[in-house]
Amino acid sequence: DTEVTQTPKHLVMGMTNKKSLKCEQHMGHRAMYWYKQKAKKPPELMFVYSYEKLSINESVPSRFSPECPNSSLLNLHLHALQPEDSALYLCASSQFQDRHNQPQHFGDGTRLSIL
Amino acid sequence: DAKTTQPPSMDCAEGRAANLPCNHSTISGNEYVYWYRQIHSQGPQYIIHGLKNNETNEMASLIITEDRKSSTLILPHATLRDTAVYYCIVRASSGTYKYIFGTGTRLKVLA
């Protein structure tokens, strides 16, 4: 069982819909991450939050909007997505962002399909 | 930032040791090497990490060469449940500390 919980596990949405992905951890971690993973490829970093503030945005299109309401919760708001945005979206957390000796812990992801 | 290279696939007989290599020839002095695995339809699972000394935990052993340019993950007695994609990762030293994933090795454990 993973200590990072992501909901929903699966999501199908049209290109005009608005939806949100949710990620939760209760390990007291202060850094949280969103990754995108296409089939048979490694995960690609999208966003990093450190102490609830956006630390890294990897030039992600504005149709993806992250939010960190508190230290345990991370959301990814989706609007006007394209078919090529269909992927597995992974959330991860680590105790801190800026330390080398810090493994990240991943959730099992939300599998997103855009019709 | 350092990068990693891994063989795309490997097979291992059940019960035998699986040795997964990773090259990280441009790693810098304070960058750790992390290993994760990803079983189909799940998120990456942390296995082990190390800096320069060999490390062992309940899942695996990590052997890092003295020059730190390569490492090997060892699963001592592979089972069918170890079939997965194994990622060798270094963490960027450029100030972002973000993970730099390799392309992964698809390990298939054969009965």
Explain what you see.
The complex is a heterodimer of chains A (115) and B (111). Chain A is mainly β. Chain A is built from no helices and eleven strands. In chain A, strands 2, 4, 5, 6, 9, 10 and 11 form a seven-stranded mixed β-sheet that branches. A four-stranded antiparallel β-sheet of chain A has the order 1-3-8-7, with no helix packed on it. Chain A starts with a strand and ends with a strand. With 111 residues, chain B is an all-beta fold. Helices cover 0% and strands 47% of the residues of chain B. In chain B, strands 1, 3, 4, 8, 9 and 10 form a six-stranded mixed β-sheet that branches. The N and C termini of chain B lie far apart (39 Å).
Number of DSSP E strands of chain B: 10
Distance between the termini of chain A: 31 Å
Q: Can you tell me the overall shape of chain A?
A: globular
- Low-pLDDT stretches of chain A: none
Quickly count the helices of chain B.
0
Which pair of chains forms the biggest interface, and how many residues does each contribute?
Answer: A-B, 24 and 24 residues
Cα radius of gyration of chain A in angstroms: 13 Å
Number of helices of chain A: 0
Task: Tell me the major beta sheet of chain A.
Answer: 7 strands, mixed
Distance between the termini of chain B: 39 Å
Mind summarizing the main beta sheet of chain B? 6 strands, mixed
Uncertain residue segments of chain B: none
Q: Could you state the order of secondary-structure elements of chain B as H and E?
A: EEEEEEEEEE
What proportion strand of chain A?
over 45%
Find the structural class of chain A using helix and strand composition: mainly beta
How would you describe the shape of chain B? globular
Quaternary arrangement of the chains shown? Answer: heterodimer
- Determine the structural class of chain B based on helices, strands and strand pairing: mainly beta
* Helix content estimate of chain A: under 10%
